[in-house]
Amino acid sequence: GRFAPIIEGNPQLAPPDNFRAVTSHESASIDLSWTSVVGATGYQIQRSSTNNDEAIFTIIATISSTLTTNYIDKSNLINGETYYYKIAATDSRFTGRFSPILQAVPQLAPPDNFKAVTGDESASIDLSWTSVVGATGYEIQRSFTNNEGAIFSIIASISNTLTTNYIDKSNLINGQTYYYKIAGSDSRSIGRFAPIIEGNPQLAPPDNFRAVTSHESASIDLSWTSVVGATG
Asked: How far apart are the first and last CA of the chain?
């Protein structure tokens, strides 16, 4: 019979599967990962600050290794800003089809070494942490419980990048367990919170505790300074 009209086709490399964009452990960075594409010799990653009909995607990475299936984007990202990503496989001749567009929001890293210890004063907890690169301050929250329904309230907003400690004296009860979390902050956003820790305030030990020989035989005179909050 007669042949149908001639048509043309243009085979392309498949888009990478399992393309993911997640907030990195570092401030102002996004972790990208994907599954390798058969026949690819590399990958091209593009980024945009918008995702509409007028969005302009710019190449941020050209990867020339078939074994590489991850990339950390640290190129001029702003914490709290949303970014859009797409990726395509490449070979010596062409760039393949792009994956669906993903979005991710970089954030300030959580403060490391967050600690809560019983304060030197009664009914107080000493909090300390390591400073976060890019932070202009810190937000500390506290709760009486640590479960799915726990309500954390802000107890301190610190606007000094050099401050890495805080003494909580706000209505604490000795012997009660309190739960704390902390995040770095900047002018745009609050970063990720550090893992929740707990603290347990206690009565301070009596100061000036002395034991001296008594005027009476076989006796010792003991003395000390009273403790605020103690009933005995």
From this structure: 109
Least confident stretch, 10-14, 61-65, 68-72, 119-123 = 10-14
For the structural domain made of 20-104, what CATH number should be given? 2.60.40.10
Domain segments of the chain as ranges: 20-104, 115-199
Upper half-sphere CA count for residue 103 (Cβ side, 13 Å): 9
Q: How far apart are CA 49 and CA 33, in angstroms?
A: 19
DSSP string, 28-91: T-EEEE----TT-SEEEEEEES--STT---EEEEEE--SS--EEEE-SS--TT--EEEEEEEE-
**pTM metric for this prediction:** 0.76
DSSP state letter for 151: -
Specify the CATH number for 115-199; select among 2.60.40.10, 1.10.510.10, 2.40.70.10, 3.40.50.300.
Answer: 2.60.40.10
For 19-59, the pLDDT digits (tens) are 999 999 889 999 999 999 999 999 999 999 999 989 999 99
